[in-house]
Amino acid sequence: RKEVEQDPGPFNVPEGATVAFNCTYSNSASQSFFWYRQDCRKEPKLLMSVYSSGNEDGRFTAQLNRASQYISLLIRDSKLSDSATYLCAVYQAGTALIFGKGTTLSVSS
Amino acid sequence: DAEITQSPRHKITETGRQVTLACHQTWNHNNMFWYRQDLGHGLRLIHYSYGVHDTNKGEVSDGYSVSRSNTEDLPLTLESAASSQTSVYFCASGQSYEQYFGPGTRLTVT
Q1: pLDDT tens by residue, B6-31
Q2: Is some CB atom of chain B closer than 8 A to the CB atom of A99?
């Protein structure tokens, strides 16, 4: 089982739709969790940290479920500019961030 | 503004040559990382450093080395480049758990 797994998609949604991505992780000792956004051929950029209480930043909501070992990202009112690949990342003590392979989102008009 | 830079941005080299990719950050972050990204594999950790003179192997460290002589720089060396090392290489830095990435180096080994 991979350490961090994501559904690769692609997720194809119309503008204005709500879309959710899940990411599962295998190491129960994982400490910190993040969502990154990556545009084609560019570097990943930090989108959100994920806190156990859940956190929201505008149209984006991230949640952590430690019992089931997954994190989620919800995007409301999708925009064309949200089209990108979304990477989840999990920090494991003593190492570094371990990334999932990413989920591709395509928002169409 | 503080930033993280990588050079060169594109590099073509021949099999067997030694190649060094530069990474420089001006945030004064203690932690620095090297990843490679390939289709079907995502981002994979090569080496990382938690401070000057500290280096650690990641998931795919064979054929690569790093050294950390100051806070700002973590150069990545391919000792003898192989075609399997054709990839996009990202450097990242951070002070705690978060990481911030450089623009990447696209390396082609022919």
Answers
A1: 999 999 999 999 999 999 999 999 99
A2: yes
Which one-letter amino acid corresponds to residue B99?
Q
**pLDDT band with cut points at 50, 70 and 90 for residue B57:** very high
A chain contacts of residue B99, beta-carbon cutoff 8 Å: 46, 89, 96-97
Does residue A1 have a pLDDT over 70? no
If DSSP codes are grouped into helix, strand and coil, which group holds residue B19? strand
Other C-beta atoms closer than 10 Å to the C-beta of B77 total 14
Spatial separation of the C-alpha atoms in residues B55 and B57, rounded to whole Å: 7
CB contact under 8 A, B99 and A96: yes
By the 8 A CB rule, do A61 and A53 touch? Answer: no
Contact call for B97 and A44, based on CB within 8 A: no
Residue A29's pLDDT band (boundaries 50, 70, 90)?
A: confident
